[in-house]
Write a structure and sequence with these properties.
mainly alpha; 2 helices; 87% helix
Length: 55
């Protein structure tokens, strides 16, 4: 990790309370789950459109 990355990380997270850090992690986890769901639904939609075009 570069020194600049560490300094940016420190500025961002040093002032957070433990409850805020916990909430931030929960939001990041939820965001990752939503991204996976959107990717799966996008793939499903593309497959369905492909099937409909072949009919």
């Amino acid at each position: 990790m570069s020194e600049a990355t560490f300094c940016n990380w420190r500025k961002r997270y040093t002032s957070l309370m433990p409850s805020e850090v916990k909430r931030l992690r929960q939001l990041e986890d939820e965001n990752n789950r939503v991204k996976k769901i959107v990717a799966a639904l996008t793939l499903d939609k593309a497959m369905l459109q492909d099937v409909l075009q072949k009919m």
